[in-house]
Design brief:
Layout: E1 6-10, H1 14-26, E2 30-34, H2 37-47, E3 53-57, H3 66-76, E4 81-86, H4 93-96, E5 102-105, H5 110-121
Parallel strand pairs: 1-2, 1-3, 3-4, 4-5
Helix pairs in contact: 1-5, 2-3
Amino acid sequence: MVRRPRVLVVEDDPLALMMLMLDLQADGFNVDGVETVREAVQFLGANGAELDALVCDLDLRDGSDGYAVARSARTHNPAVAVLYTSGVGRPEFETRKVAGAGLSPKPWVAQEIAQRLRRLLG
């Protein structure tokens, strides 16, 4: 049996979160989703070592950004693949991202997210 990569999606828009989770599940990923940084930190504390990839919005409503979530994920699993999403230009991206991370602009197409994740996972 082939192991399905485990992905955490952090997206503060509930509809976008649900749609992306369903699309990634249909594309063969084992997906968990949260809407806030607090939920992400709790999830990572309990499951971060088993996580293969993180898809994280950079602009979260609770005042935090996805860069902090990615750094937290890497403390639990230094090999976790990271794909950020953003609906606005990010001139600071290259200096603030975690090593090897990708950026997918919004609006995104779920198949493109899945393809980018597969490339990041190798």
